Structures are given as structure tokens and as C-alpha cells.
Amino acid sequence: MDKEAMLKELGLKTMFDISDEQMPALVDEYEVFMHHVQVLEKIDTTGVAIMAYPYDIETTYMREDEPNDVISRDDALKNAKEVMQNQVKVPKVVG
Amino acid sequence: METYTIEQLAAKIKNNEIDLKQYYEELFEEVAIQQKRLNCMVTITREEAFKALEKESGSMLNKIPGVLKDNYSTKGILTTASSRMLEDYVPVYSAAVYESLEKANMALIGKASMDELAMGGTNKSALTGPVLNPWDTSRISGGSSGGSAACVASGLVPFAMGSDTGDSVRKPAGLCGVYGFKPTWGRISRYGIIPYASSLDAVGIFTRNVRDMAIVTRELAGRDNRDMTSSFNEVPDYLADLNPNLAKRTIAVLTTVSNEVRNEKIKANFEEMVAKFKELGAKVIEVTIDQELARAILPVYKIIANSEATSNHACLDGIKYGNRQPGESVDEIMINSRSNGFGDHIKRRFILGNLALATENQEKMFRQAQRVRRLIVQEMDEIFKNADVIIAPNSGQIAPKVAEASDDMLSDEYIILENYLALANFGGNPSLTMPVGMVDGMPIGLNITGRIFEEQTVLDVAYALEQVLDFKDRYKRED
Amino acid sequence: MNFEVVIGLEVHTELKTKSKMFSAAPVSFGEEVNTKVNIVDLGMTGAMPVLNKSGVEYALRVCHALNMDIDELVVFDRKNYYYSDLPKGFQITQDRRPIGRNGALEIEFDGQVEVVEIERLHMEEDTAKQFHFDDYSLIDYNRSGIPLIEIVTRPTIRSAAGAAAYLERLRQILLFTDVSDAKMEEGSMRCDVNVSIRPFGSQRFGTRCEIKNLNSISNVQKAIEYEVARQKKIILSGNQVTQNTMRFDEDLKQTVVMRAKGDAVDYKYYPEPNILPIRLDHAWVESIKANLPEMPDVLVKRYVNEYQIPKTDALILVQTKPVADFFNNTVKHTDQYKQVANWLLGEVAAYLNKSKLTIDQTRLTPVNLAALITLINEGTISSKQAKEVFTITIEEGQDPNVIIEERNMKQISSVEVLSGYINEILDGNPQSIEDYKNGKNRAVGFIVGQLMKATNGQANPAVANKLVVELLKARC
């Protein structure tokens, strides 16, 4: 698959419709991005664990099971653009 | 309008030496003027501010004016993160930081402009347009917390809140000649802040001096059970404990960064600062980090930040809130809403973030970046074995002209110098940028980064330097 | 060609904690739409997850019940995909480090005992519920964030019947650990099935198909049977099975393709950055194990070995936890184990069936059932009276001793008292004595009937019969 088709597809998987006008800039940024990837590929990380948080720390806190945080239905739906019967309305979902 | 520090205004309020109604009337007149000049605000919250005048608290921040970056959720107040996607979004809850400030009875002046979703370093990508630098309105404020920086640098407010994922508080602070501080990851709750990249994001504060910085940090730091990453570590009294004595301090000059500076004036200024630290009695050592790793800072940052961002913002789909565009199916609604709601550069970053997270790429892209992140942090930890703080110039340049400023700078000079501040995000370290000079009429900054949870050390070092310089409490305001 | 069937099952179960997995909104079923939600469940930007301790505890109970290795460092990952029922755009789950690994569950079917190997158990959260109409769908977020555990077997199940037996057993475990309602029809327990077939003796797995969203154990069995037949047909006709995701069409009684493998979503799992690794307190983990109720298989063994209850009856007693609990509590008050079982499987079961109640919804208590059985065995009441007392105690909750006292239902077994009654009746019915002399045994029945009338039915029938015969003989 060529680069543009791949990026178009990846765009759709990220819920974007990338137009033909937007494509050149995306290809450029992709090239820069792949350059970044190459820089990292050259670094030997054998035996190095990933770092998912800024420092290694374990905690013990868990919330007690108390149902004490609920918002009103008005608040829940306040920012929704389409509401019907107190629910968010969307086109029919299939599958 | 008079311009005060937090301490000055708090003293006047306490001693009943100020007519606050009149002060705030004048302040909002000035806000309107500076808004016109700098375009620093998304929302001005006059009503909120005057409400605070009717209430009291025992906090130093009682009735002190402040500003929040527009990615802090504020219940009942528009919160856009400067994105079309959230153009009309009014949160039903408030960020922990805003709750703390409300409890302290701070007077909220407004919500400040930012790069869209905090993803940028110029503040040019804001939905409401670029924010201009108070010192020269042909130049940028820097980003992503550019609006907050401009509010403090123009003297409108003594403090403003920002957020810092790579340098988004410290960079604009340096370019605008104010103090920008990013405490340790976990020191201040992130609850309710529209995120960028959660493993890098930190609350950041702008002030015009160290003492005010200590006050605001103290007010906000501490455990919040709604943010599982927030720390249980005790919070010192940063203000009372401020100690400018550097006799026992070791300061590491990060030459891997400082050697990259090409601007002679900035170079000279930095050498001057190093000399001042020596005069103050600190032990100064020179340190480096591996060149290959230094050149990997930007790649690591880009890959991790974009990947986490694309996931963090998957909630912005037009279904429950935010921009919704019509479509025949749910997928179409999501695609149309997101395509319409985000700026082009945001879309590109989300797409590339997804590329790096894709299962087939994740090992060599996202997880490789996470591994290199560890190697880089290990370099920092090595340095911190022998030094209390690391210093380097905040930037190799003064604020760029609006037309010239860009996020995409890949030259050798820039790749390390303009991106190294992300080191403190990789390791979660407290990191402060302070004004240390003027070059061509524009402020320049110095960055001081410390060990995790050693905010006090960073503030102490900055406090010592501040006292031998003449750059605290500076602001620039024109009509 | 003979084929071996290879089946692996993935079961999702909603936990009945009080609050959600990562938010403190209440867990509810069947409540008003969008009234049990908060900012976390709605995926409001800036919201952050906070882990529910009970969610972890419930997961640990099931891990222990399945004899799993427990990872005491709890870490979460994000599973990323865009879907209208997924408000955050990702689900928080455990991909790389499930809390439980390497479990086993013994199943019994067709008279054979097999062990199903369980690969993993992990914690995650439920999605919002969508209601579909002709040309639109409506979203209710009440379900969003309800704790889920997913239990995944290794592909060690070899038949549809085995799969059904596993699900029955697993359901029992979920009920006995008291973590879930585990109702497949209502969606609190859901099952996805992976099925493939291969020639006997082959070491390689065949291409598998996944059947999703099955809503009853019998449908699981039917779907597997259909799918196995379908795959056999394909292979025997010289073709290859394609890896698809299927659903089971209840009307057609067939598996139907939902999507092909190529359309599979890439979930892009990565560590959840907003939840630091959580180190569980080892003592707490162990205490959960120690406090675990006895599991059904252990109970059955105990019932058979200690109480001499037939295995078939024991198996029925442990079908639901409330009944098993009731039995366990009743035998604390009586040693007539078998009678307790008979009552529970007989009168009690019939009553529950008729009233559509579960045993804990009635007013029957273990103490009262034990008392009732004691009264029968002591001869204080007849079995006919016992049924009457039972109806009263299960409906009104009264102590059987009080019931019979208040209603004068105590049986009269005293020879002295009964003799008095009988002699009086015989005195008034000389004809009966004549009849008895002439060999007419019905005279006995007549006198007993008169006795019952005279005593309001309280005469102990056994004693009465014997006594009437004795006294008649005496007068002959």
C-alpha cells in the first residue's frame, strides 16, 4: 500500500477524513515521525523495561466501595447535542 | 491600575488598605485593554471575581486575582481548551486545582488562551488566534500556556495556572519574562484538567517572583483521592522554609544543552548566571548526558505524547458532548465531528500517535520510546546523585516573531536546546524557569530542575539567584 | 475422517459491587436511564479513574475459588477503540498482567470428570447500554463503568456438552462467591466461544471461529453444535474454514458471520497512565481466601460423606447458594440431615416454584425448619399437621412450637388420655364391638374416626390405631 493510502486508512481508524488538501502536510509530518522512529531504533535498549510513569512507584490506595458520586441527569445530558427520552440519540447502531 | 504581588495585595487586604471594589473595576478595565492588545483570554469571568469579594477565606490567596488556562474544567464556565471541538462545552464539574483555589477564595479573572488541547509551543493554534507577547506584540507569547503567561507578564494578575507536558509552562514563562514552575508529577492533582499526555502532564504555575510561587504551590500541593497518581508525600511550607543559602548546594550545569546556544548574548548571560551561583557559594559542576540520548529527547517526547494524546482525546467524539456534525451513522458522526472539530496539526498528531500505538508498530515505536525514556531518566538520576539541581538556558532564542514561529524545528541547534525541558516531564522532576536577563528588549530565562519531590530545593536556588538579580516583579503593560 | 473439537470460552461477568469499577457512581440494574452516572462514566474529558477496592476483592474471590495464581501487583491497560457505547474511547482492562492466572475447574458431565484449565481472569469495566429502534439508537450510560471480570479458558474443552457443563459450574462459582447475579438472559454473565476442529491425533489447531454474545447456556451448546457441524462440512468438502467472528441467530438456529478477520479492530493496548501499579496487601489477599464460603463441589462431598445424602440430591441442594446456605444453617439445629434435604427438595422446592420466590425471600428460617422436623420426629405432630405448620411458618415466619400451641395442634400420644376417649366412644357404640367380634375390621376405622373427631384430629394416629385395637380386643 502506498503511503498516502496507508495514512488515509489510518486517518479513518482515528476517526478523521483526511482530505486531499490535508494529505501533503500529513505525509511530511509522517516522514519526520519516521525519522524520529529511526533515531530511537538505533539506541540499544536490550533488557531495558518500558517506563510508563515518570518514576517507579507502587501504591496501595484503593477507593472504598461507596456509591457517593452521582450527577443529575440534567448535568449528564447538558452538553449532548441530541437527546431523546433522556438518552443520547445517535443514528441506528448496527452489529 | 496598581500592580501587586500576591504578598503585597494580601497584606493590603488584610490591613484594609485597599478598596477592592474599585481595584477590581479598574482591573477589568485593564483586562479589556490587554485582551485587545494580547488576545490572551478565551473567557473573562467578571461575575466570578466579584462573587469572591463577598466571601472570605484564611488563605493568602483570599480575593487575589488569578487566571486559569482554558483546559482547567470549571463548573458552569465555558472550557474550550482552545479547540473548536469544545467550543461550547460547559463542564458540570471543576478541576481539583480550581476547587482548591475556590476554597482559598481566589478571584477568577478568566480562562486563558492556549495552544489547541495544549499541543503546541507557540499558542498560534488557539481557536481564538495567537496570543501576543506583552514585551513586543509582534512576537509570540510561547505555548502552550501562552495566555496564562501573558496575563502574568502584563501584570493583570499576580499568578496564573498552566499545564506542562513538555515545556508548556516553562517555555512561555521564559519568553514572557515571568516565573514558570512545574512541580513534581503527582505533587498537584491533575483531576479535571483536560489532558495532553497523562504520563507527562503536570500542573504548572506562573508568578512574578519566587515567594508568590511558594505560596501558590503550597496551596495546591497534596494528595487528592480522585487522582490515583497524586502523591501522599507531605507538603512542606515552601514559603516559610525558603532558604537562599547556597553554601551546601551543588549546581550542575548541563553543558549538553548550554553548549548548543548560538546566541552570544544568551550565552554570555548564562555564563554570568553560573558565575553568580559560584559567588553565592554554591558548588558548580559541569555535567552532560549522552549525546545520542539527548538527540532522542524530541523523538521520545513526540511519540509518547502523541500516542497518549490520541487515546486521551478519543472521548472527544461528538456523541455525549462537544462539537457534533451530522452523519448517517455513528462512525460518520464521529468522523465528521472530529474532522471538523480539531485543527489539522492536531489530526496529524493523533494519526501518528495511533501509528505508534498500533500493535504491529508498538514495540519499535511506542514501547521503544518508553524504554529510551527510562535510559534518559537514568542519566538524569546519575546527575542528581552529585547535584541538587541541574541548570541550563531556558531557550536559545528570544520569543520569535508571530509569522516565523513554528513547532517544527529540526536543525541540530534546536533539536536538543529547544526540547530538553521535556527531561523534567520524562522524570516527573520539579522544574522552574525564571527571568534572568533582557536580550534585544526581550526577556530570557534560566531553567532550574531538581530531584522529584524536592520542590523546596528548586525554589531555594531560584530564591537565591532572584535576590542578586533585578528581574522579579517585572511586567510590561501598554495601552 | 474423525474430528476432535477444540473449544475455548471467554466469560464476562458483571460484579454486584455497590459502586462502579473506576467511579463512585452506584451500580444499578433496571434504574431510570442516565440517573446512575458521573463524569467518569460519561467519559467527560479530564475525569480520572479511581479503583474500587471491592471490585478487586470480588475478582480475588473468584481467583481463589478457581485456584488461580494471583498477581499481587495490580496493573491496568487501556484497550483503545471508537464505539458509541464506549464513552472514553477506551476501556480500562488488564491486558499484560491479569490478576489471576492458571486456574482449574473440575466439571462432571455424561458421568465423566474433566478438568477445564483456566488461562486468566482479569478486571475491566462495562460499556454503556444501547437501545435500538427502527432508525436510531438511544444510549443509557447507567451500565457504563460497572465492574466486570473476564475469565478465559485454555482451549481444553472438547465438546458442546463440556462447554455447557463448564458454564454451569462457573455460574455456580460466581453465585457461591457472591460476586454476581450471573444471569445470562439478563446479560450479567456473557459468553464468547472459540471453536475449531482438527483431525484426531493432529497437534495443530484448526482455524477457529469466535461466536459472540450468547445469551444462555443452552444457546452456547446449540451454537457450538451447529458450528462444529458447519466446520466439518467445510473441511470434508475440501475447503478451509475462514477465521470469522460469528453470532448465533436464535430464530435460524445457526451461526452467522458478523465480521471477517481482516476487519478485526486493533485495540492498541498500552499501560493506563492514570493508575499507578497497586501492591495488594498479602494478608488481605489471604484473608479473602480464608473467608471464602465452601464451594459447591466441596459441599457435595461433605453432604454425601458426612450426611449420607444421595449425590443426586446433594447436587440439587448446591445448585443455588441460598438453598445450600439454608441447608448448612438448618443442619446446625438438627441431626436429621436427610429429612432436612427431603424437606428442601420437596415441600420447600414446591412452594418456591409455586410462589416464584427464592428461599431467602420467604419467611422460613433454618431454626424453624429444624424445629418442624424435630416436632415430627418426636411424634408431637403428624406429617399431615406438619404440612399445615410448614405453610404457616414459611408464610408468616412463626416458630412451629408456637403455631401448634396457639392452634391446639399438639398431637395426643398419651395412652391414658386416649384410652379415656376410646372407652367413652366404645361405651356409646356397642354395635362396633359386635362388628369387630364378627371379624369386621372396618369397626377399627370407625372408632379411630370418632376418636379423631373427638380430639379435633390431635390423636396420634399410630398410637390411636394400636390402642383402639387393643381396647376392642379387651371387650370381646
Helix content range of the residues of chain C, please? 25-40%
Distance between the termini of chain C: 85 Å
Question: What is the straight-line distance between the termini of chain A?
Answer: 28 Å
Described by strand count, sense and barrel closure, the largest sheet of chain A is: 2 strands, antiparallel
Structure summary, number of beta strands of chain A: 2
The count of strands of chain C amounts to 16
Mean pLDDT, all residues of chain A: 96
Description:
The complex is a heterotrimer of chains A (95), B (479) and C (476). Chain A has 95 residues and is mainly alpha-helical. Chain A has a domain at 3-41. Helix content of chain A is 37%, strand content 7%. In chain A, strand 1 (83-84) and strand 2 form a beta hairpin. Chain B is α/β, with parallel strands linked by helices. Chain B has a domain at 6-244: Alpha-Beta Complex (Amidase signature (AS) enzymes), CATH 3.90.1300.10. Chain B contains 18 helices and 13 strands. Chain B has helices spanning 6-14, 20-38, 46-53, 96-103, 146-153, 170-176, 210-220, 255-258, 264-279, 291-294, 297-312, 330-341, 344-357, 359-362, 366-386, 412-417, 423-426, 455-467; strands spanning 41-44, 65-69, 107-112, 132-133, 136-140, 159-164, 179-182, 202-207, 250-254, 283-287, 389-393, 431-439, 442-450. In chain B, the strands form two sheets. Chain B has an eleven-stranded mixed β-sheet with strand order 1-3-2-6-8-7-12-13-11-9-10, sandwiched between helices. Chain B has a two-stranded antiparallel ribbon with strand order 4-5. In chain B, a hairpin with a 2-residue loop joins strand 4 (132-133) and strand 5 (136-140). In chain B, helix 7 runs antiparallel to helix 18 (455-467). Chain B starts with 5 loop residues before the first helix and ends in a 12-residue tail after the last helix. Chain C is of the alpha+beta class. Chain C has three domains: 3-284, no CATH class; 295-404, no CATH class; 415-475, Arc Repressor Mutant, subunit A, CATH 1.10.10. Chain C has helices at 53-65, 160-176, 217-236, 282-290, 296-307, 311-317, 321-330, 337-355, 366-377, 383-396, 400-406, 415-428, 430-437, 442-454, 461-475; strands spanning 3-14, 69-70, 73-74, 77-80, 90-93, 100-109, 112-125, 129-132, 136-140, 147-153, 189-199, 209-214, 244-249, 254-260, 270-271, 278-279. In chain C, the strands form four sheets. In chain C, strands 2-6-7-10-1-11-12-13-14 form a nine-stranded mixed β-sheet. A three-stranded antiparallel β-sheet of chain C has the order 5-4-15, with no helix packed on it. A two-stranded antiparallel ribbon of chain C has the order 3-16. Chain C starts with a strand and ends with a helix. Classes of the chains: A mainly alpha (95), B alpha/beta (479), C alpha+beta (476). At the A-B interface, helix 1, helix 2 and strand 2 of A face helix 11, helix 12, helix 13 and helix 15 of B. Strand 2 of chain A pairs antiparallel with strand 9 (136-140) of chain C, so a sheet runs across the interface.
